[in-house]
Amino acid sequence: MNSRQRRGVILILLSVLCALGAFAGVLSVISDVESKVGPETTAYELAADVKPYEELSESQFRKVEIPERWVPETAVTDLRGIDGKIAVTPLRKGSLLQSDMVVDRPALEKGEQEIAIMIDAATGVAGKIRPGATVNIYATFDRETSGAKPQSKVIVTGAKVIDVGRLTPLDPDQDERRRATTEAVPITFGLGTLDAQRVAYAESFASHVRLALVAPGGGSPVSPDSRTYTLDGDKGGNG
Questions:
Q1: Which residue range is the domain that position 85 belongs to?
Q2: What is the pLDDT of residues 73-116, one digit of tens each?
Q3: Fewer CB within 10 Å, N- or C-terminus of the chain?
Q4: CA 41, CA 44: separation in Å to the nearest integer?
Q5: What is the domain-level CATH number for residue 87?
């Protein structure tokens, strides 16, 4: 083997050694990254925005793989059982789904029953009343219905909202007192027997039925003397 051949062999050996060194470096980097990232686990993120109190289903989420060390303890890693639950806050597209974002839909308590009535979408709901909300229910009666002066009554206080239906166009051929309302929303309440009767009566005979949203934590109780209002009986003042 002459000197030129020996130089060629040496260059080939050096090239092989450099390649092996580079390969070892890449393996070292990969190993270091894996040691820092660790194994991955399944989680779920929102595929679209979800409104507060909206009922959830598996189709609203997409699966993602995230390193275990970066997944919070409250992250939902299994969508089984998510159907029927509702969002407690607005959920934004791309957000990681966590267990404290959802709750069970409000259920009836012992002694309660469900009753649903149609509420004027413009004056009675305004998009703010959701399942789980607490409301006071007001009914106004005209002179013909009340047999006396027109009056407004608080018929139920602290009513629990079980469900809010979809906006529904009303039949234009219905009775006179409903014709001014073109759209309504079915609202389902969980009420005791007497309160359910009050709501049913108001829905049938009142000129209008309206809901007043009660702030979280409850509101001031309405005394029996304050449940009925007439214009002639208004003593003035801001209280």
A1: 40-103
A2: 888 888 887 877 888 778 899 888 888 888 877 777 888 899 99
A3: C
A4: 10
A5: 3.90.1210.10
Contacts of 59-64 with C-beta under 8 Å, sequence gap 24+, read 61/97, 64/96
Residues pairing with 118 in the sheet: 186
* Domain annotation covers residue 139: yes
Q: Are residues 95 and 176 in the same domain?
A: no
Residue 86, C-beta contacts closer than 8 angstroms, at least 6 positions apart = 53, 54, 55, 56, 102, 103, 104, 105, 131, 132
Residue 218 lies in a domain: yes
Number of structural domains found in the chain:
2
Stretch 218-236: mean pLDDT: 70
Cβ pair 169, 96 in contact under 8 A: no
Q: Say if 124 falls within a structural domain.
A: yes
Distance CA 92, CA 149 (A): 50
Whether residues 72 and 125 fall in one domain = no
153 forms bridges with which residues in the sheet?
Answer: 139, 228
The answer on 215 and 134 residing in a single domain is: yes
Whole-number Å distance between alpha carbons of 119 and 239: 27
- The token duo for 30 is 């990969």
Q: Single out the residue of 137, 118, 99 nearest to residue 213, CA to CA.
A: 137
β-strand pairing of 228-229 with 168-169 = unpaired
> How many Å apart are CA 163 and CA 189, to the nearest integer?
7
Work out the number of other CB atoms within 10 angstroms of the CB of residue 136. 17
